[in-house]
Predict the structure.
Amino acid sequence: MIVEIEETNGVAVLTIDNPPVNMGDTAMRTALAEALDKVAAQSGLVGVVLASAGTHFYAGSDISEFDRPMQAPQLPDVIARIENLGVPVVAALTGLALGGGLELALGCDLRIGDPTTIVGFPEVTLGILPGAGGTVRTARLVGVPSAIDLVGSARRVKADEALSLGLLDEVVPADVLLARAVERAATLGAKNRLVDRPAPVSDETAVEAARAAVSKRARPNVLAAVDVVCTGASLEGREALRRERALFDELRVTDEAANLRYLFFAKRRAAKAVRSRTPAPQISAIGVAGAGTMGAALAGAFAARGYEVIVFDSNRAALDRVADRSGITPTDSIADLGRADLIVDAVFEDMDVKKSLLREVEPHLDDTAVIVSNTSYLDLNEMASVLTVPGRFAGLHFFNPPDRNPLVEIIRTSTTDERTLAVLSAVVTRLGKTPIPAGIGDGFVANRVYADYRMQAEFLVEDGASPAEVDAALIELGFAIGPFAVADMSGLDIAWARRKRLADTRDPRQRYVDIADRLCEAGRLGKKTGAGWYDYPDGAKRGVVDPRVDAITEKARADAGVTARPVTGDEIRDRVLASMVCAAAGLVEAGVAQRASDIDVALTEGFAFPARLGGPVRALAQRDRAEVVSALEAAYRSCPVSFAIAEPAAAGEIPDTIEKILEAVR
């Protein structure tokens, strides 16, 4: 039984048990509706309690149902049954009460939580808005400004804050939660329907401040949710509910919402793929080798999650980066890393330097210690070869800045054991990161796809587009910033070093654009030097077009025998998108990426590809066949060697390898 009914002192306790997290699916809603109908027919009851048999009260709705016509009873119908009962209903909250779970609780007459309770409305992150009274009842309970924040931010609120806001009426110890809920249900006496209340009078300044706090770049559904909160507060309750549900139903079937649901499940699959069946040992201390920009940021990220962090660097000046940070112990003795359960290599991106570190550090470690490298490109199997116990070694690739960028690649070498994978999965989970599995290959997954994205952008410039035109076209696609502005921010010397490292192995038939090399040779290394693809006069935050770049570009085109031509925004977007998909197909075919959806996760999480499009593979998959062929052909013709995988497109066909990954994400 999903819902059990027991009577205690005239109070009917409805206990929900829909493992593993009390997800609100059709079966659960049906069971709850039937239980409420039974309770409504009982005589002699003085109250009802909604409780959970598990860890979570109601973790949220089953969003997979949103891809199909919604089945009755829908959540608003269940909540209406609660409000129509003649006796008060108390929600006993524990664990997660998110989305529909919080809406269910708001339909009750009183809400009591235990200290584990976490509430919130995640709906706007899925391209929709709360559609079962979340905007309406929240505004009437806590006021419009707080409701705007809760609905528009999608943030999770812990029990103490929920109590201070008024979302919870009480917070009690977990062992007395049910008894206290029964007691309150028995003595409450009268109904307290939020939908019948007027919203508290709100200061207009506070309302406008809450509106202003919502990002100006927020998606339309977020802005619509904020509007519904504000307008609903001035409407009669039932009319406000009707309007909210109508907009929910409209947003639920948009492409953007479907793409965001796709990414939601793609992230779940990727996280599941990096879990190990081997139990993870407790990790309390983490050692970071290297106190450079990345090492210092990693140390801060680990310390923020409660790990003891030891940072080693032979350069005392570098250690000053972390010397005053809480939870971090700097040291210039490599032996001190022996206290760590996990050691992260964050030293200079050079194979000899990294192998030397591994040889030096291993003798100081316990047999159970795990070692990982944060390398972006280097061969992890070669690194593992210098270790006495290579099974404890793997790649754990964070993306810049590691304290804010959610993406982490977990890279298994040919010798990595299950215990090591279990440790890495547990650490990544504790950090709150989005992991994907990756295999051995230059650039692994995300950087490999991004390299072809950047390469195609440079082809487009050599063909006749300006850096500013390419950036503008991709911003129009949905990127927050274009590839040339990004390159200036990260530094042109990073990619330059990689190109020089790969020069001896580059196919001489492959098209190579040397404009970026010429910029570097001219000392234009990006924002840090005041000039790169753009100029940054007087430390300007945003670059401005520099005629000197035009001159360098024109000379490079002439030397390459390329005659510049106009390039449209559509061509820019098509070629960039097709290039990324070509790279994705190659990675899946080679086994470096397990799934095409992992690549969409990597690019949306790590490189801010517009999530509303679902990622590059999903985005191309949703185009019609003729457009796909045209885009692939354009990428192929830009360099038949780099994009050889797309050759069939020149004959009007979608290559089988690409067809497979497109089909997999539709």
Notes: The first strand starts at residue 3 and ends at 8. The CA atoms of residues 51 and 92 lie 5 Å apart.
